[in-house]
Recover the amino acids of this structure.
């Protein structure tokens, strides 16, 4: 069941991010790359972490295992996205699109 939840969130985040930035992104690519990733990928990844944890109550350890990142890095990424959704209009619009799709 959790695998379907992960896939659903990842697809919603990727499609919303691609729609806003105009860059094509695939769900298999959101966990690839650690530094200097394009905006579309970093936004999809960060917002996927936020939705997995805040909406679907997946703990950070499981998210970290799925993304091959440390728990601390996942928490930092999600915290940054939570902040940016109130500050940055691009993140805000992407968050709203994802919210509507889920």
């Amino acid at each position: 069941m959790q695998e379907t939840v992960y896939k659903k969130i990842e697809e919603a985040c990727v499609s919303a991010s691609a729609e806003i930035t105009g860059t094509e992104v695939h769900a298999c690519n959101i966990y690839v790359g650690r530094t200097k990733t394009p905006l579309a990928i970093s936004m999809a990844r960060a917002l996927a972490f936020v939705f997995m944890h805040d909406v679907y109550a997946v703990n950070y350890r499981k998210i970290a295992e799925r993304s091959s990142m440390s728990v601390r890095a996942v928490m930092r990424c999600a915290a940054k996205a939570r902040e940016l959704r109130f500050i940055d209009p691009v993140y805000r619009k992407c968050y709203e699109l994802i919210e509507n799709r889920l």
In short: The CA atoms of residues 19 and 94 lie 9 Å apart. The radius of gyration is 12 Å.
